[in-house]
Each structure stands twice: as structure tokens, then as C-alpha cells.
Amino acid sequence: MIMVRSALFKGLAASVLLCGLAAAAEGLPSQVAKPLQQLGIPPGSVAFAVQEAGGTTGGLSHNVERAFNPASVMKLVTTYAALELLGPAYRWKTEAWVDGEHLVLKGKGDPKLNYEGIWTLLRALRSRGLREIRGDLILDRTWFGEVPDGRIDNEAFRPYNVTPDALLVNFRAVRFGFLPDGGRVRVFVEPAMPGLEVVNALVVSEGACPEGRAFRDMIQASFRSRPAHARFSGRYPLSCGERDLNVALHEPEDYVAGMIRHLWNELGGTWHGMVRNGAASPAAQLVYIHESAPLAEIARDINKFSNNVMARQLYLTLAAERAGAPAQPQAAFRTIQDLLRSKGIAAPELVIENGSGLSRNERASAATLLALLQAAWRSPAMPEFVSSMPVVAVDGTMRKRLLGGAVAGQAHIKTGLLADARSVAGFVLDRNGRRQAVVMVINHPRAGEAQAALDAFLEWVYSGPTSPAPSTSRRPGASPRRP
Fold first, then answer.
1. Nearest by Cα to 12 from 437, 438, 366
2. What's the whole-model pTM score?
3. From the centroid of its chain, how far is CA 136?
4. CA-based, 20 to 30 A from 367: which of 16, 160, 256, 283?
5. Cα angle vertex 316, ends 311, 320, to 5°?
6. Which CATH fold topology does 93-169+251-292 show?
7. Cα separation, 36 vs 25, whole angstroms
């Protein structure tokens, strides 16, 4: 049980929906405060808000006006805006044009144009009678403008750092698979890119198998883009079994050229030219349009698995569709601001750099995020939006969290994490059968160790804590009731 201040939450510019939120006098519920205190994280580094979904009054909050870095919870802003403005059935289109002896591929930002999608596109061209590309493969990438790379760390070859591209193929990822085979380690590559040199000097060993960055350090992985080269020279414990490592190794033009040349040859076609950037001439003929999966499915991939590249592609798609190509990040931000204002959400503190949350600069308050969840709850796209989030203890980034907890299976929650930021936001079906919109954000150097506090927050919301009975210390008219 937590105490409620006498005055309702004041000065909230995010939304009139939150005018009835009450603030917690002691800051945080005890079960949430305890793990934070053990880490030395002060209440000022934490914000939370809880309000019944669809409600306009009541609820509990702490520190909700302050602008925090929400990490990947920012993906909820991007996906909600897209579902609202573009519609759940929106599909991206990749066009194939024949321009004399040249083949032109015009990309329009498909976030999920993967290996299978390119194979389908090329197979469609073969079925339409195209056998030989005598000229060049021309890549039209003008749907997006010049985009900063947005790299958040020095991991240049990690797929999450890939720069958005109007013709992004397979996230430019190459998957290296490692498989112990007797006294050696086999290394295989998918897709098999022409010209990629792989040096395998791995040595089989005993011992435990590390995870994450420690695994990459152990196998001493090193990469080069031009010419494409990968080397693995460390030890490989048998306990690792089969493992894989995804790497964004190639430059954009090299990757598309290598994949298409490989697949086109497999399909029995021939290609004699080179690859270059450009556009179709007025005389070119449109021969095929490849359509993506619908936006509702893309939103699930983005939110359940926190896919940064897909979120950035979606963010720029908003700009291209609403403000015109070539898409610019600033236009996407203005589009989202206009949408929020139309919903009565002022959000003066909101800063969006790339729409994914993979940024040191993005900011949002818990009040703004809660107001957005409430707007989404009233939206025709609500079912697609809610179902795009991970289910606690079931799938996505919440698959291994709160296993066996009371809230397991009872909440759709988007997670966020950076080195100094942790967050959760979404909807909890509490034990009383009421759906609660929830937000909690922690910004602190030790935020990475604070998962227990975030999990305790979700359990606390599920338990349906009630506010204390009215007292004379409360201003008349202030509602202590939690919805």
C-alpha cells in the first residue's frame, strides 16, 4: 500500500487524460524501492505511472514530468504513430523496372526485405521471361534521404548498427554458423556471398561456453568490409555446441550485388554488368512489384524482438509517406508531434532522433508515454498495437522474465535497455480483471542491474494495490481511488 499526496498531479502538459493522476508521497512502492535502494539508485532517477486503460482520472504516479531516456520503449511511439497514420494493412513496395539492358530495383524502405523476399522477386522476374541482364543492376535508394548512421557504439559490424536504407536487404547480415565436428570446428556462411573470404583457425577446447560479447572475444572474431573478409582464431569449447554470429559485413551495394548475383545464377539467369546507384529513365517499364508483409506483422517484429533497424526504417517511412520523399528524420518527428497534438498530447519534452530508442539523445516523460498508451487504447488500431508487444514470460524480450510469477501471461510489455537506461511500458491485466496502462523508466549508471525492480513493479501492478482511505490531509475533490 502506498500513500497518495493531497494534491492531484500538477502541471502535466502531456495530456488532459492524466489530469487525475495522483503522485506517491513516499515515491515508490516498497517492493520496487527495495531493490533500487540496494543498488544505490535514488527515487529521482525513476519514474512510473499507472492508470486504468481507457481511464481519464485516478491512477498513481511518481516523477512523471521529468524527461527520461526511454530506450527501446520509444518503439511504442513509432509503431503507434505508424499504425494510426498508415493503417495495419499498409505494405511496402519494392519495384523492378527494365530500362533498356539494365534492371532497376527501386526500394521504398521495406524493413523486412529478406533473403526469401529477394528470391521471390527474382523468381517473379524469371517467370515473366527475363533471362539475361546484359547491362547493370541499378539500385534506386532515393526514397530515403541522407540519414546519419546513428551508431550507438563502436560495434561497426553489429546488425543493430546498420544504417537505414530505402533498399535494405536482409539487414545486410551474414550469419556465420559454428559446429564442432570431431576434432575441428566447421564454419558455414548464410547467405553464401561471392568473394567473401573466411579464415577458420578455431581450436576445439574444453570448458564452459560464454555468452554475448564474451563469446565473440573468445573466438577472436575480426572482420573487414572491402574486400569482404572474416577471421576466427580463438578456442571453441565443445560445450558451445552449434552457435551462430550475425555480422553486417558488407557495404550496401556490395551486399545487394552479391546476394542477387548468387540467387540469379541459381535461378538460371545470367548477368554481365555491374551494380551502381541511380534511377530508372522515363523510358523504363515497370515489370514487377514485390509487396512486404503488412504493417501489423512488422510492428510485432519491431516490438516483440526490439528490432532497431526495422524501427528506424518505419520511422523514415512515416516521413516519406506523410511529408514526401526523400525521407528525413526531422520530417518523421514533426509527423509524430502533429499526431500527438491531435490526440491532446503536448509532449514538450519529447525528443526523437531515429524512432528506435537506440540513441543517447531520445527523451520522453512517463506522462507522455502513458498518454500515448491511453490514446492507443482508444484507437481503431488498438488490437494490433497491443498484440505487437511481448507477453510476459511467453515471448519476445519478455520470454525469460517473471517465469512462474503471478503476472506471467497477464501483460503485454515493451522493454527497453541501454547501458544506463531500463524501462517497461504496456498493459497489465490485474488480478481484479482490469487492464492497467503502465510505464516505468530508470536512468542511472546502475540501471542495467535494476531488472528486479522493473519486474517487481509489474507484479505490484498485477496485484491491484488499493489507495488508503480518505483523510483530512487531502485537498477536497482529490480522488484517492485507484481505478
1. 366
2. 0.89
3. 35
4. 160
5. 145
6. D-tyrosyl-trna(Tyr) Deacylase; Chain: A; (3.50.80)
7. 17
